[in-house]
Amino acid sequence: MRGVDDHKRQLNRLKQKRFRERSSAERDALQNEVYKLRNVLRALQKRRTKVPRAPTTTPQPLCAQLAPWAASSAEGCHGVTLVADAVGRKVGLDWYSQHLFHNTDRLLQTCAFPSDGSAVAEPIRLWETGASLELLACQQHDFARSLEATYYALHDTMWAHLRGDTVANVSEFLDVELTRAIDAKMVYRRNVPLLDEHICYVSREFRGANRIVFVCGNFGHDEKLPRASRWRSRLFWYVLDRVSATRTRLRVVWYNGPQLVDGRIVPWRDEVAEEYIHLIGLAADQQLEHCKRVIQPFALSQLDSFTTSVVTAVQSTTPQDDP
Fold it and tell me: Alpha carbon of 135 to those of 48, 85, 132: distances in Å?
């Protein structure tokens, strides 16, 4: 058992290292672009020519927004900030949703989905990272329909979930015209589950010939809104893959990161105490296992409920291709 725990910790360390390296590379690339653009602007300002300056000053607003964006992309578990400027917001919404999409394969690999479409051995994974807990939920289901027919049957159900229609709290849709200008299959919304917490989700659909991906993730902060004192990373992937001409596979991935209050990570023992999960009298090595026994069944019930809704949506629809 100890060897298994050591192996999990080693995997977590490797994943964290890859995440830091990727974030560092993205930050360095953006900062390098900012540096180049600033040098170009300085050179143009020094040269007194008769060339109209309007074309050369066009990059300045974008340059000014890329600098804080580069810094915010390295915030890790504190999330990514969506800036207030219109140019920066468009870049931010597009970049973040693309970022989630381009990490699809990495998440699917992390979940280790069986290639035959069978159930995942450990659908709810809860692990300790320093003083915090992270949760990963994954499930898959095969449909005896083509990709097009499955998409047609699931489209409305998926978007009801992405728009927040299935939760108790009503969502406020933000930057509607801006998101439409980026992609017709994109929404940005604000949900307020608690007085000290509001969640700003961006959702987007990416459709290819053999794969359709729905992604959803929340920003750490929106500069146009008051900063919430309570926050955690919430990320979602819904992947439809063509297995054959008459079979489609749905894979669902949910991620919950550490909880932050006023910018500080809440130790997981304090967090679970708020949920009335009592650890008093348990040895240190038993506390995490006790939390798993409490949290995993609840998370699995939520995941099963979602999967049941999409299976019902497919079964209640007459097989047909997307018009």
Answer: 58, 33, 10
